[in-house]
Amino acid sequence: MAEQNRYRKEVIMIHIFKVSGQRFVPALTMEEAFWIHLENPSPEEIERIVKKYNLEEDFITDLQDADENARLEWDEGALLTILRVPIYYKHRSAKISFATAPMGIISTEDKLITVSFYDNEILTQYLEGKHRPFNITQQSFLLNINLRTAIYFLKFLKEINRRTTLIEDELHQSMKNKELIRLLRMEKSLVYFNTALKSNEIILERLQRTRWLLNDPDAEDMIEDVIIENKQAIEMANIYSSILSGMMDAFASIISNNLNVVMKFLTSITIIISVPTLIVSIYGMNVPLPFQESNFAFALIMGISVLISLILVLVFIHKKYF
C-alpha cells in the first residue's frame, strides 16, 4: 500500500458541524458541534481530541495504516467503526487508479467523530452541505456513511468496467504489454474492492445486532437497505473480477497461439530456404558432380532448387502452415 501512503491528504484541518433542522451547518465551537471531522490530523490535534473526549489514541492513530482492517470496537462508552472506503487516484504517476483505505467513525455520548488520513469522496456532500435532508442522529449518520460507501464502490466498479472495455478494444487492435499491464492493474483494484466490501459486510452485520443501533427506530429499516447495497457491490465486484480474469486468460491463450503460428511459419520458411542452400553447398564441393560439364549447369541446378522449393510451398499450403 505504499501507493496510498504517497497520496495521503496534505491538508490538515478539523471541521466541526452542528445540526440545523435536517442538515449540517458549520459550528463555532466543539461544545456545540454534533459532528467533528479530522482530515489528516497532526499529532497535536490527535492529542487534543483524545484528551477532550477521553478516547484511546489507537482509535485515531491506527487509521494511518493503509492496510488497517475494517472492524468494530467498544471502549469506555465510545464505539469505533472502521470502514474500508474506495479511493480514486487521479495522479498520472499512480500505479493503480482505484484502491481502498480505512476511514474511522467514532461515536461518543453526544459527538460523532470521523477520521480520514486518505483522500476520498465519501463525506464530500456532508462537508459541503449538499447532502439530502434526513433525520440526523448518530445512528442514521453512520448508516448514511455506510450507504454512500457502498454507492461509491458501485460507481467506481462501473468505471473499472468501462475502462476494461476500452482496453479490450485496444488489445483487439494490437497485442501490447502496456494494455495487458493496465488490465492487470484493474484486476488488482477489483481484488482490493472485493476484500474491502466483504470486510464492510461483516461490520454491517455486527452493527445490525448492536443495542446502540437499535436506539434509533429508523435504523433497523435503513441498515437493511445498506446491507443490500453492499451485497450488490460485492456481487458486481465478483462478476467484473470473473470477466476480467477470463479475459486475461483468453488474451494469454491468443498470445500463445499467435506465437505458435509465427514459429510454424518461420520453421516452414527455414525448411524451404534450406533446400536450395543444401544443393548449392553440394555443388560447391571440389569433386565430380552431375552437369559439371554442361553449359546449362547453373540453369539446371537453379531450376531443380526452385522446383523442389515450390513443391514444399504447395505441401505446406496444403497442410495450412501458411
From TrEMBL:
Molecular-function annotations in GO: metal ion transmembrane transporter activity
Membrane topology according to the record: Multi-pass membrane protein
A UniProt-annotated Pfam family: CorA
Keywords: Membrane, Transmembrane, Transmembrane helix
UniProt KW Transmembrane keyword: yes
Any single Gene Ontology cellular-component annotation: membrane
Chief site of localization: membrane
UniProt similarity note: Belongs to the CorA metal ion transporter (MIT) (TC 1.A.35) family.
Name of protein: Transporter
Organism, as annotated: Cloacimonas acidaminovorans (strain Evry)
